[in-house]
Amino acid sequence: MRSLLIFTLVGVGAQLVDGALGMAFGVTATTLLVLSSVGAAQASAAVHLAEVGTTLASGLSHWRFKNIDWPLVAKLGAPGAVGAFLGATVLSSLSTEHAAPLMAAILVAIGVYVLLRFSLRTPIAVDGRGTRHGVRFLAPLGLFGGFIDASGGGGWGPVTTSTLLSQGKTAPRTVIGSVSASEFLVSVSASVGFLIGLGRQFLDNWPVVVGLMLGGVIAAPIAAWLVSRISPALLGTAVGGVIVLTNSQKLVHFFDIQWPWSTAIYSLIVVAWASLVVYAWRVSRAPRTAPVTALDVSSESVAR
User: Fold this and answer.
1) What digits encode the pLDDT tens for the residues 178-209?
2) Rounded CA gap, 55 and 186, in Å?
3) DSSP string of 65-131, one letter each residue
4) Domain spans of the chain, in order of start
5) What is the DSSP letter of 189?
6) For 199, left (φ over 0), alpha (ψ -120 to 50), or beta?
7) Is residue 44 a contact partner of residue 83, using CB atoms and an 8 Å limit?
8) Rounded to the nearest 5 degrees, what angle is found at the Cα of 295, between the Cα atoms of 290 and 299?
9) CB 19 within 8 A of CB 148
């Protein structure tokens, strides 16, 4: 019962982050599970099995509100499923000793990306006249995103959503809806890969899966309220720093980096993180006092 409560709290925390940022449920949940002494492969397997339910619900919601471009889902989701199966197979075949630092390294990279993406991001312009993304662009993106997502315990959203939004060829709501729908295929494929690779260990993770799902359901309405109260830039910068700092500790221990170098590494991360948080806080406050210009009105009308 105690473990179920812990995993439910992990699900709550991950859903609060995902609901406010539109991404990072897997990365946040996996980081928190690993900190709770859950094995790397077991953590990623549990997260993806839980996401089968959450992504299905999310995809149906986006379909109801007509936020999905089905050709985009197919071109992105099919390669993503292949990449997720390969990533799950690779992670399942590694020993616990080798899987932990691999996942930590991937999560540090994703954490740095999230940290910089939300602190130093530039406004995204959407050109409604832009051409649709082709298979040559979406297939490699989906394959890479799926592999990173399964082998690192998360990353589908940070890799695919941010990349598609930065292209400015598709409306943000369509990008988010289509990526959410395609993530269902990624989660199912990754779960199958972990089931084959882990066997009974995969089935023993039911308290983690139930806890994550329950926590996600509880936190969903709170996250919807939170997104209107906290700046995504500020929250994303804060979460990215937590992911980098916590997983960098595992790499420092793995490579047996001693004092004073370990202290120097942590200090550098904390100073850089604090600086970016302050910068994101200032940027998040600037639009509130900035005058509305014709360019702003034009951009808002395009986004709608």
Assistant:
1) 888 898 999 999 999 998 988 777 677 788 88
2) 10
3) TT---HHHHHHHHHHHHHHHHHHHHHHHHS-HHHHHHHHHHHHHHHHHHHHHHHHS--PPP--TTSP
4) 2-303
5) H
6) left
7) no
8) 100
9) no
CA 25, CA 263: separation in Å to the nearest integer?
Answer: 29
Per the structure block, which two tokens stand in for 52?
A: 């089968």
Task: State the burial class of residue 14 (Cβ atoms within 10 Å of its Cβ: 0-12, 13-18, 19+).
Answer: buried
pTM above 0.85, yes or no: no
Question: Which residue in 4, 6, 31 sits closest to 250, CA to CA?
Answer: 31
Amino acid at 55: T
**Pair 115, 276: CB distance under 8 Å:** yes
Residue pLDDT, tens place only, 219-253: 766 765 665 566 777 877 887 888 888 889 878 98
**Residue 39 structure tokens:** 């094995």
